[in-house]
Amino acid sequence: MNSSNRALLVLTLLILSGIIVPFLIWGARFDAAFSIEGAREWMEGYGRWAWVAGIVLLIADIALPVPSTVVMSALGWMHGWWLGGLISAAGSMLSGVIAYAACRWLGRGAARWIAGEEGLRRGEEIFEKRGGWLVALSRWMPVLPEAVACLAGLSRMRWRVFLPALACGSVPTGFVFAAIGHMGQKDPLWAILLSCVVPVLLWLGAARVLKR
Q1: Which residue has the higher pLDDT, 212 or 177?
Q2: What's the domain count of the chain?
Q3: What does pTM read for this prediction?
Q4: Which domain does 197 fall in, by range?
């Protein structure tokens, strides 16, 4: 492994540790507080602004161990699969955009200090070739979504590629888990399968359009 790859690996591990450590410290507490019922009750306390509270929780997942799929399911339980899916997708999109933008504009200097110019250049190459796949597929995984969005920002992945890839991952995930909440199901296997397969199909189509 050459020095640029090692530097990029160190930067990636630092970003992951910044996200994983809060999970290790507070993860169990957040899981207990934000069951589907708990998240629904928390949002209902805000009355007609419950949908805003749901979006805020999804954005807070950038820094806190908020179980985003549970929040999406609670939104589906409260608002139905269609409106709940729209809110969930919007929250996931906003979360990804904020993580990307913050790291693109605020974290570049620190990343250059950690990984060096060559390490960042290597990251740019990776996200230029495979960034769309990484962003789209990461949205249904635990921990990885915001870490990948941060790395995409640091690597200055193009906006016109990042946003479609983010939508390809966030929209199906939001609607699938909102539908689960609407139907009152807690852990169906088909949800995982759908949220894995649909982003792949969407990104295949989006990538062809972007190439044209």
Answers
A1: 177
A2: 1
A3: 0.77
A4: 3-211
